[in-house]
Amino acid sequence: MDLMTPTLLKKLHQYILNDEVDKFYRLKVWRVLRLVALRRDDYKCQYDKRLGIVTKADTVHHIIPVRENPRLALRLSNLESISKSNHNREHPEKLEKKKEFTNEERW
How distant, in Å, are the alpha carbons of 19, 45, 74, 91 from that of 96? Predict the structure, then answer.
């Protein structure tokens, strides 16, 4: 199942260029496909399943990252359901806190 259209691909390229990929995850088409992937995998973490462990999945992971190949962003075969902790392990950069604005002016 591949739901990518030329219009969506163009929009995703813009999100990537503007460092706004998070907007992609708010699109209805992504939210629907995410549910399809979770149901397909019976809400079980596929990473842990390969290790013989049964864990609940609450996140859908792009096997090939969106930034590397946007064409695969909405392809079901490029998605796997995994636990939040395993997703954090896969993407430690997403855990880094964004720099907060600090006012250098001192009173």
Answer: 16, 24, 26, 10
Mean pLDDT of 43-65: 95
> What is each CA distance from 42 to 31, 88, 98, in whole angstroms?
17, 21, 34
Evaluated on CA atoms 21, 22, 24, 25, the torsion sign reads positive
Contacts of 77 (CB under 8 A, 6+ apart): 1
The CA-CA-CA angle for residues 100, 31, 53, to 5°, reads 90
Amino acid at site 83 = S
Amino acid at position 17, single letter:
L
Q: Give the pLDDT score at 88.
A: 86
pLDDT value of residue 105: 61
